[in-house]
Known about the structure:
The chain is mostly beta strands and about 575 residues long. Helix content is about 10%, strand content about 30%. A four-stranded antiparallel β-sheet has the order 3-4-5-6, with no helix packed on it. A four-stranded antiparallel β-sheet has the order 7-8-9-10, with no helix packed on it. The termini are far apart.
Amino acid sequence: MAPSTPLLTVRGSEGLYMVNGPPLFTESAVFPRESGKNCKVYTFSKDGTLFAWNNGEKVSIISVPDKQLLHCFDLPKAVCLEFSPKSTILAAWQPYTTSKDGAAGTPNLQLYDVKTGACLKSFIQKKMQNWCPSWSEDEAICARNVNNEIHFFENNNFDSIVNKLHLQKVNDFVLSPGAQPYKVAVYVPGSKGAPSFVRLYQYPNFDGPHAALANKSFFKADKVTMLWNKKATAVLVVASTEVDKTGASYYGEQTLHYIATNGESAVVQLPKSGPIYDVAWNSSSTEFCAVYGFMPAKATIFNLKCDPVFDFGTGPRNAAYYSPHGHILVLAGFGNLRGQMEVWDVKNYKLISKPVASDSTYFSWCPDGEHILTATCAPRLRVNNGFKVWHYTGSVLHRYDAPASGELWQVSWQPFLDGVFPAKKITYQAVPSDVPREEPKVATAYRPPALRNKPVTSSKLHEEEPPQNMKPQQGNDKPLSKTALKNQRKHEAKRAAKQEARNDKSPDVAAPPAPQSAPRNPVSQPTSGDPETDKKIKNLKKKLKAIEQLKEQAASGKQLEKNQLEKIQKEKALLQELEDLELGL
């Protein structure tokens, strides 16, 4: 039976304590409050049954279900804690220090057996980045990146290295989720004119020229982010440069790549130029959402062929969060944006709610897939610290504000394994709440003194684009339903057929010849009188021109990506569609 109240853990100037989740929101007796400001770090096990924290003097572990203290470790300086996937090991990291005489420091990464409390192994881990070893979900293998090699241990035996993956200057790696066969994605940055690359391997097949399952190289990459889907069939790679040499972006330049374990790879073509703010896999592993482009940013869902499935239009957003069950998607604008959120039913592509969480620095879905946590935490923001628990329909169910002289540093949900909470039917009506509704503050545009007594003229710096199923049709301000769109296409086809028939009967009108390729230097073309038709013709010619360029690249010997080859294969269909449209002119 699923628990009714997932816990919330709160860490701040008032200490460390736990709060019962919805609908209670009372302080929990599971964990006695740790007063004071010395708590540096806490963590839950993956299934939420164990809780570890450092109060500035020691690291302790308790069992959440029976409230029992299991172990205490003398690690006052520990700033990072993490449990292994099956909760058998606690990893603790302290900052690495050396003595004044230059002698090597002592090991600062400890692995403890949760059952016995014994220290299984100590390592020297100088950098905080990627400090924690990576385990497979069944803990059969564990891996660490050490000096151009990835070392693999088996069955939590850290006395011997069972396998090594050697790649010069290997910078990062990510183990795949799920059970066997285990896979690993590795990243090697480029140097001396050589490109950076990401390779996928299946453990333990690392040797030989054809050992890699897939390989993707790219020149524009100072760092990468690698994201496995839940079924471990593909990886999304966000490649970033620190500086955009064109000067177009303060954030550098990003590209998005798709790499599958069957060897296929593709560059995800993003229709709007600009930074890639966020990428998220759906838990179904069949689609992903990207938020990208200069503000107002676009958000698009892509399938495994990297084709767009649904376009959410543009808006003030820089993050995407799928619910644990994958049936709801939140698009949000946090950080330097105002905290506007869009909550979408991704099965029907229907907008559920548009709440505003101003000044938020943190967002998290509750494991039940019903509730959302937003928070304003220090040191990112030192004013208006606090957190809110929302229902996805937009209702605020609980609000906590830090004292005027206090700060909130961290807040998070107690985790649970997949399947503990069943998915519920989506509702569109806001659930009732006792928390007073706040009207979001509307920031008014600055007006110089000379214009303050004059009428306000409505003008926008950027024209926002609505989602594809909400775009108004010509002469109609309301979005059309699926049936209306289908009927509209039928009527357009009938009109085109009638126009073609009239052209065939008239001896003075000759049908234009079928276009052979996209015109390189198009001259002024006759218009149809219908802006939508003219727009379609223009877009078709643009696509055909792009195909011509791809064909020229292929003829010059350049190797094209899979999705680029698929574009070339669509040339005949695009030519036919262009011909049909131009027959109606």
